[in-house]
Write a structure and sequence with these properties.
By secondary structure, the chain is mainly beta. It has a five-stranded mixed sheet with strand order 6-7-3-1-20, with no helix packed on it. The chain has a five-stranded antiparallel sheet with strand order 5-4-8-9-19, with no helix packed on it. Strands 12, 15, 16, 18 and 22 form a five-stranded antiparallel sheet that branches. β6 and β7 form a beta hairpin. It is elongated and about 90 Å long. The termini are far apart.
Amino acid sequence: MKILSLLCFVVGVSFLSGCIEEYEADIPSEDSDLLVVEGSICSSQLNKFILSRTQPVNTSYNPQMVTGAKVAVRGSDGSEYIAQATDDYYACWIDALAPDVEYYLHIETDGEVYESEPQKPLPTEKIADVDVVQSTPESDIDVFVTPDAPLNPDKANYYSWTYVETWEVHPDYTTVIYFDTKTSSPVFDPHQFPTRGWKNATSSEILVGSSLNYEGQHIRNLKLYDISRIDERMYYNYSGLIQQRAISKAEYEYELARHQASSEMGGLFTPLPSALPTNIHCLTSHKRVIGFVGCSLNTSEHRFFLRAVDFSIYHPVKKDARIWLKDCSELDCYRMAVDQGMYLCEWVDERDRPGGKLRTAWAYDFQLDVRLWGAKAEKPDFWIIEY
């Protein structure tokens, strides 16, 4: 019976595999090579706009920036801020936006002219509080945000958030000595490698929220993101900078649709990118555009700090990966330093005792220098966590 069951299983799998055919999406030609615009008009900061083109579904996603375009932020009062091209985006600095002026993005590329819908900049409330919670010792660390009381409590309020992370990293090993090949002896040098460093990362997605389900249209304790308790970011000390911006209902709906489209890409009921809502239009033809350009009078920021000792963090202890020479000569040390390119970590010299020997430990630079991990050795100006 076991053999018969196995044969039936094999035949069934073969039959099913023979029924599978490659599916090729029928994407209209007019939905390819569409202009994609990313960015928002914001007061008192560097405004960045990314221009790219849609690609066929069956090609690998490798967006290329649209080059040679003319990009500018314009106002109904005749003001204009011309964006300069970099390798990855177009950028212009805007000192301050006037609350009663309507602003829009103007783009000229490939013989076409595109503009976003003029809109007055929306004011943004401050961030009242950021709360961090670890529900159980095995849980992730959740980050919650509470905006200040809404400027207009009689209508729904919409926000977008991004965040920048900075966390402390330590090398696998530290050393305060090095091997002097001229004297064949250790020399004290506590500044050979930094004892710690800092890494940075910017959130890859825009998070949005609505006040519709909150009392008094006041969002409270909205979860933004979480950090795994086993993540490197929580091994020592961590800081997050949350950036909050008030947005329109239309921009909120665009971000929701964009997130759904990106998370469900490839599904049978996933909308085509060109079906996403947009406030950018081509003035010289009927070409469609993907993107939404918001306009904000200000951006609110809130920085918070976390210490690993205040949470239940799993930081596995690594096995000693240094190379130990338990009975080495000074010639062996010379070879480790010169031929192997390793660095001296330990020098235990017991040769002055009967039967005593010289023991040394060695490590490579990537085990000692956090700068080789992409970290910066200079402490950030805002860093207030000390031991």
